[in-house]
Amino acid sequence: MGRKNYHRILLKLSGEALVNKDGYGIDEEILSSIASQVKELHEDGREIAIVVGGGNIFRGIAAASGGMDRSTADYIGMLATVMNALALQDALEHLQVFTRVQSAISMHDVAEPYIRRRAIRHLEKKRIVIFAAGTGNPYFSTDTAAALRALEIGAEAILKATKVDGVYDEDPMKNPNANKFEELTYIDVLNKGLKVMDATATSLCMDNNMPIIVFNIAAEGNIRKAAEGQRIGTIVRGENNG
Questions:
Q1: How many domains, in total, are found in the chain?
Q2: Which residue range(s) make up the domain with 99?
Q3: Which pLDDT does position 1 carry in this prediction?
């Protein structure tokens, strides 16, 4: 089954995709590279929304496992995503790309509140919209936020940028003989426990036939290739859906 050329997409970036060589914070070169790739795709006339994680600054689950209250830890993690969103906005606007950050947690001095209709209007006006602070609720990951926002804005696909070139049956960093999947169904992902997105996000995509394309962000031009429907990475979709 072929892939499609998508017009309105949601790009999911993990916080780890922005991390510097010390394993913490934001690498300016990586940030600039991602912004340049997004600008190139945007100039094709595509409508782009972005959800960015915060794991390069703070991981709520890790803090909770260390004894911090889970809700408190998750809220701190949400604030970390706002930092990343503002950094990405700045990188895009240095390239003369009009960008808006919408936060699920109210902070009017630095970001707009998340309003679905306003987000769609920004996309229609060819502005890039970055969704920050996850869903605004603890216990929900930024993967789930990505699935939810993609559905709310009528995106045609979720492009999930990672550090590997797709989904494997084992960790390819640990096992060089791990097998890569070119295509999976949502049920495959859930049954095999594959780390594409968490189960809540995967189920939400499955219920609404939202395709997920997993690809390597480090290779220049891969965001464009994924959006154009080129056969890179791994696509997750229903058995009878493109």
A1: 1
A2: 8-236
A3: 58
